[in-house]
Design brief:
- This protein has 264 residues and is α/β, with parallel strands linked by helices.
- It has a single domain, classed as 3-Layer(aba) Sandwich (Rossmann fold), CATH 3.40.50.
- Helices cover 40% and strands 25% of the residues.
- The protein contains eleven helices and eleven strands.
- The chain has helices at 14-22, 28-39, 57-62, 83-98, 107-115, 138-141, 204-213, 215-220, 228-244, 247-250, 252-263; strands spanning 4-9, 43-48, 68-71, 101-105, 119-128, 131-136, 152-155, 158-165, 171-175, 183-188, 191-196.
- Strands 2-1-3-4-11-10-9-6-7 form a nine-stranded mixed β-sheet.
- Strand 9 and strand 10 (183-188) form a beta hairpin.
- Helix 4 (83-98) crosses helix 5 (107-115) and helix 7 packs antiparallel against helix 9 (228-244).
- The termini are close together.
Length: 264
């Protein structure tokens, strides 16, 4: 895993990251760096935000030089079709032409799927801080992303949307009761895409902070909870998961992806 050049794509708008920082929550890019550095201190990171960065040309010219790219989460909904979202889809298409290994997490997977011709819609249910009983299917058990992973596991997760149509030749690797597509694999142009709907790179403590940060929206706009008591009850369930969760096992997908780069 030594001396790999990794491009991290920040999916959130700059304003959302400022809101995170004001209340002491790591940005998704910061979470990614911390989790990847758990497995190796010799990773070289560049960071780009296709929604906010005015000059993407310098990064675009460097795309072939990256050993891998990780595209993280966001509070955006891809079907809203804003200029910022269109910029991300356009940049993903560029990456799918020039970067060989892409790990697309949650929002990142939704952007990757959309850029490759698949479809994402609002889900009938949501994950708020945790996804329970993610089940790896037979194809997933044979895929290197799940090496040494249990067939059924829980994971940090936070999503209201889901992939409903896979890109051409894509394969679903895992599911649960809320999202049929919890992970996938596909190849497009020059890229091999590993996609995860959940967040192995984010710990449960951050998920609890995000719930607290968004509790007003979760009650009034998202209507996921009736009141703060329901939110606190849900947080209590996540705290129980913290007690039985193992950090390295939770993040195995990251380790396996980094190892896949070294095998090439």
């Amino acid at each position: 895993m030594n001396n790999l050049n990794i491009l991290i794509v920040e999916g959130n708008l700059r304003e959302e990251n400022k809101n995170f920082s004001k209340v002491g929550i790591q940005t998704h890019t910061e979470s990614l760096k911390e989790s990847l550095n758990y497995f190796s201190k010799d990773l070289n990171f560049d960071v780009v935000n296709p929604s906010s960065d005015e000059d993407l040309e310098s990064i675009k010219s460097k795309l072939p030089s990256y050993h891998g790219l990780i595209w993280g989460g966001s509070s955006l909904n891809i079907y809203n079709d804003t200029p910022e979202i269109r910029n991300q889809i356009t940049f993903m298409k560029e990456c799918q032409n020039k970067v060989k290994k892409i790990l697309a997490i949650c929002w990142g997977m939704q952007v990757a799927v959309t850029a490759a011709g698949g479809q994402v819609k609002k889900a009938n249910a949501s994950h708020i801080g945790i996804a329970n009983e993610i089940t790896v299917n037979d194809k997933g058990l044979k895929h290197p992303i799940y090496k040494n992973k249990k067939k059924i596991f829980n994971s940090p997760a936070f999503n209201f949307d889901e992939v409903v149509t896979l890109p051409k030749n894509a394969v679903c690797l895992a599911s649960n009761k809320i999202n049929k597509i919890q992970s996938l694999y596909f190849e497009v142009n020059n890229s091999k895409i590993w996609g995860l709907q959940y967040h192995p790179e984010i710990n449960y403590e951050k998920m609890i902070s995000l719930i607290e940060f968004r509790k007003g929206r979760l009650i009034t706009s998202r209507k996921v909870f009736k009141d703060e008591k329901e939110i606190q009850d849900h947080i209590s369930l996540i705290k129980k998961e913290i007690k039985v969760s193992n950090k390295e096992i939770r993040m195995l997908e990251l380790k396996n992806w980094l190892n896949s780069i070294n095998l090439d």
